[in-house]
Design a protein that fits this description.
6 helices, two-stranded antiparallel sheet, mainly alpha, single chain, globular
């Protein structure tokens, strides 16, 4: 077999590593982060706070589209954040059915904590991956994109 072909063994190793990493990432997404004062937030809550804080999305439909999750799932997280005092919900004056989301001062504080944590994690990961060249990282991103495309196509055919 040619060296430029992907072997079943190589593919198997890639898939095993992908599944293992995905499971660990899912475990990470279930961990809460302490904010102090006996308050904690989960990554799903931080993702919503981050999107609102960076002005990427301030409506449930936008957040649903951004995170590829249902509007119902977004609404559940938004309601938790609202009940905890991190997010305000305001009816759009021009379109009454639409709710505009914004951060409260408490939400803004969580947003800043989250930004600091992201910056720390990003810098640690950059250091951790410094043995790889930018070209190798780009290749990995391309591979992950192809895997995502394959999964999307597979799911589309099965749904």
């Amino acid at each position: 077999m040619k060296k430029d072909k992907i072997t079943p063994e190589t593919l198997h190793g890639l898939l095993i590593q992908f599944i293992r990493t995905t499971k660990k990432f899912n475990d990470f997404e279930k961990m809460s982060i302490e904010l102090g004062n006996n308050e904690k937030l989960y990554p799903s809550e931080f993702h919503i706070i981050d999107a609102i804080g960076h002005n990427r999305a301030n409506k449930v439909t936008q957040l649903s589209y951004m995170f590829h999750i249902t509007k119902g799932a977004v609404s559940q997280v938004v309601n938790k954040l609202h009940n905890k005092g991190f997010v305000t919900k305001q009816r759009n004056k021009d379109f009454g059915k639409e709710i505009i989301l914004s951060l409260t001062p408490k939400g803004q504080e969580a947003f800043e904590i989250q930004n600091e944590l992201h910056e720390k994690l990003k810098n640690e990961l950059i250091t951790y991956l410094s043995t790889f060249s930018p070209e190798q990282i780009d290749s990995f991103v391309q591979i992950m994109s192809k895997i995502e495309d394959y999964i999307d196509a597979f799911l589309k055919d099965k749904i």
